[in-house]
Amino acid sequence: MSSLISRRTVLASPFALLGGMASAQASLPKQVNLMVPYPAGGPSDAIARLVDKPLAKAAGQMVIVENLGGVSGALAAQKVLSAPADGGYVFQGSPNELILAPLANAAVKLRSEDFRPVQLIGVAPIAILARKGLAAGHVDELIALARKAAADGKPLSYGSVGVGSFYHVLGAHFGQTVGATLNHVPYKGVAPLVQDIAGEQVDFAIVVVTPGAIALAEQGRMKVLGTLAPAGKPEVALLKAYPSINDSKTLHDFAFNIWTGYFVRKDTPEPVVQALHAALTQVLGDAGVRGQLEQLGMMVASPLSLAEASRHYEAQTARFRAIAKSIRLEAQ
């Protein structure tokens, strides 16, 4: 998965910006709803609430954040699909809701192809967190330990935020890649998962790493065994002290991150999509947005053209469908 990191500002002449704003105002409805598939107060909600005002300014329209959790994000996604295809409802999504939920949850009837990507906004880095008492200080030792534990009939445990979640799929893919059976332990959220790693109740997890988790690691209450950044690639400031597992002796080509972006119904008229794309691209160039994303421990996504966004989304869908098939993920 490409990291899609960029710190460059999107440059445009004042005349181009004015033209883009006029076009957006002409093409979009008076109110744009950013549909967040989780309750208020969480990380996804935080992203939406740092985007809404800059987006309203760029689009010249009112932007409202609407939260609707449930059914692995499908309730919010379905509301967007059921609304008119006029840009009035924009889905804020990630691989969890758009690609994996339909593969893991039988109640989710939508497909990733029902949506069209408009622009990515942020990319969250992934790392391996482990309990402090685990006899592994880096990924090579983790792999050796996992193989031995599996051979002894006592597989290591790894946590996730639920069956079919991004973290579950990565954990199962990791075990399959290194040839070690692992015991999956699902949780209802990242917070209780991290608490149980700190409490030595679960061996490790492959998750988005927050400043809070790094603080626990620095206090010696858990360990960071490595990031999932591509080999030789520098990580965000939050994780600069930790190596990539892709630079290890044992594991290569296991680079992942998790992105968040904005999507509309696939049948949304082209002028509307272009207007939203222009406004969101302008948001990516906002210094305040970039700074707040970095404070959340995220990387700013590189601005993509509409064609690039579609190619990236199609490649991600194909990649995770292949992984889901290889680990025999079944809808429940």
UniProtKB/TrEMBL annotation:
It holds the Pfam family TctC. InterPro entries: BUG, Bug_dom1. Residues 1-26 form the signal peptide. The keyword Signal applies. Keywords: Signal. Belongs to the UPF0065 (bug) family. This is Tripartite tricarboxylate transporter substrate binding protein. It comes from Ideonella livida.
